[in-house]
């Protein structure tokens, strides 16, 4: 018999190599390469094709552009992130840390989906009894919901072929196992083959499938990144587990934008969508305290107000500590350098921390000014006026740069009762803002901005 060939595969990015590395040459992560037995060519990913079922080229004018069929989930926040609902025949992954609420959201949408669709919920993680108890607590009683506790992917596929449900959920893809492969469940090879198998039935029967994918924390299981190119949409469920807000975000979506987010609140009866995220993000905001500043970010088409907190304190010894939560660490360091060099605010021997409240992760440049204001406010120990908000990008020369969606941001601030808005002067020059009861203060430098706020 020929000897099986072993290869090393990165569980983070799927990089393959005949030899082992401590640091993956593909993605730069440490200790993610694990040994796997090279897979035989997949049965599912390369189905046998004969002359009849071979695809033919079609004239572009003859291709129908009818809207895809979409199923609503009962959560408009989830529908929004999906681009308008679950597309028939699509393959979606919901990913996130353990305990964030992946199983909960899938079970919850079964009640609404089950009104018109037959649902197959495959669980490799929990027993039927556990799922039943949870469903009862979540108010899910649909007669169209079928639970299959199974980890053998071929059995699952067979079940889908014979029962023909309208939608399939797999919780989780890492527990699924293709018995003909010798590698263990959760390995890159297994996870890929199982996903390919699901994709094949999803596409051929036009049954949409939603997979739960665990985030790979220690390299022990293959993360959703190795599946990103196979599936149609990848959603991440984020948020601080200690806090109740959950943010759903698409990092890939063949059927919609990847900018939209959905906001949920985890309570005793499962997840509830948050219809007014700005209000939620600002609830519990401290008043008359230095080191906090409100900004308005655009998440897709929707403006959301967010509170940024900054803290600058004397460093114990050695290198000062820097930490950013919900904001890019390197961007924070860059802003600190700009504040020091261009505006004369010295942070270099201070410990500095930045935190975005509520579990949001902000990567829009317009957040810069609020981060700078929160830090300077802490540095000077001067609170920022509580009825004021700021937005604007900071350039390397310390200049404040033009920001998009000025009108939408201001309207949202006004809706939540803010009285003044500090923004780059350029924003006002280009196009006057209409219908505005808020005082708009255009500023040209970081220092001017702080003076207007303090
Ligand atoms: P779960 O959906 O099981 O997480 P995942 O599938 O992403 O691992 O979420 C479970 C967490 O949510 C758990 O810590 C308990 C909490 N939870 C609630 O607070 N309320 C509820 O109604 C449910 C079902 C779970
Ligand atoms: Mg789960």
UniProtKB/TrEMBL annotation:
<dbReference type="Pfam" id="PF13481">
    <property type="entry name" value="AAA_25"/>
</dbReference>
<keyword id="KW-0862">Zinc</keyword>
<dbReference type="GO" id="GO:0005524">
    <property type="term" value="F:ATP binding"/>
</dbReference>
<dbReference type="Pfam" id="PF13541">
    <property type="entry name" value="ChlI"/>
</dbReference>
<protein>
    <recommendedName>
        <fullName>DNA repair protein RadA</fullName>
    </recommendedName>
</protein>
<dbReference type="GO" id="GO:0140664">
    <property type="term" value="F:ATP-dependent DNA damage sensor activity"/>
</dbReference>
<keyword id="KW-0863">Zinc-finger</keyword>
<dbReference type="GO" id="GO:0016787">
    <property type="term" value="F:hydrolase activity"/>
</dbReference>
<dbReference type="InterPro" id="IPR020588">
    <property type="entry name" value="RecA_ATP-bd"/>
</dbReference>
<dbReference type="InterPro" id="IPR014721">
    <property type="entry name" value="Ribsml_uS5_D2-typ_fold_subgr"/>
</dbReference>
<feature type="domain" description="RecA family profile 1">
    <location>
        <begin position="67"/>
        <end position="215"/>
    </location>
</feature>
<comment type="function">
    <text>DNA-dependent ATPase involved in processing of recombination intermediates, plays a role in repairing DNA breaks. Stimulates the branch migration of RecA-mediated strand transfer reactions, allowing the 3' invading strand to extend heteroduplex DNA faster. Binds ssDNA in the presence of ADP but not other nucleotides, has ATPase activity that is stimulated by ssDNA and various branched DNA structures, but inhibited by SSB. Does not have RecA's homology-searching function.</text>
</comment>
<dbReference type="InterPro" id="IPR027417">
    <property type="entry name" value="P-loop_NTPase"/>
</dbReference>
<dbReference type="GO" id="GO:0008270">
    <property type="term" value="F:zinc ion binding"/>
</dbReference>
<feature type="binding site">
    <location>
        <begin position="96"/>
        <end position="103"/>
    </location>
    <ligand>
        <name>ATP</name>
    </ligand>
</feature>
<keyword id="KW-0479">Metal-binding</keyword>
<keyword id="KW-0378">Hydrolase</keyword>
<dbReference type="InterPro" id="IPR020568">
    <property type="entry name" value="Ribosomal_Su5_D2-typ_SF"/>
</dbReference>
<dbReference type="InterPro" id="IPR004504">
    <property type="entry name" value="DNA_repair_RadA"/>
</dbReference>
<keyword id="KW-0238">DNA-binding</keyword>
<dbReference type="GO" id="GO:0003684">
    <property type="term" value="F:damaged DNA binding"/>
</dbReference>
<comment type="similarity">
    <text>Belongs to the RecA family. RadA subfamily.</text>
</comment>
<keyword id="KW-0547">Nucleotide-binding</keyword>
<keyword id="KW-0067">ATP-binding</keyword>
<dbReference type="GO" id="GO:0005829">
    <property type="term" value="C:cytosol"/>
</dbReference>
<dbReference type="Pfam" id="PF18073">
    <property type="entry name" value="Zn_ribbon_LapB"/>
</dbReference>
<comment type="function">
    <text>Plays a role in repairing double-strand DNA breaks, probably involving stabilizing or processing branched DNA or blocked replication forks.</text>
</comment>
<keyword id="KW-0234">DNA repair</keyword>
<dbReference type="GO" id="GO:0000725">
    <property type="term" value="P:recombinational repair"/>
</dbReference>
<keyword id="KW-0346">Stress response</keyword>
<feature type="short sequence motif" description="RadA KNRFG motif">
    <location>
        <begin position="252"/>
        <end position="256"/>
    </location>
</feature>
<feature type="region of interest" description="Lon-protease-like">
    <location>
        <begin position="351"/>
        <end position="454"/>
    </location>
</feature>
<keyword id="KW-0227">DNA damage</keyword>
<dbReference type="InterPro" id="IPR003593">
    <property type="entry name" value="AAA+_ATPase"/>
</dbReference>
<dbReference type="InterPro" id="IPR041166">
    <property type="entry name" value="Rubredoxin_2"/>
</dbReference>
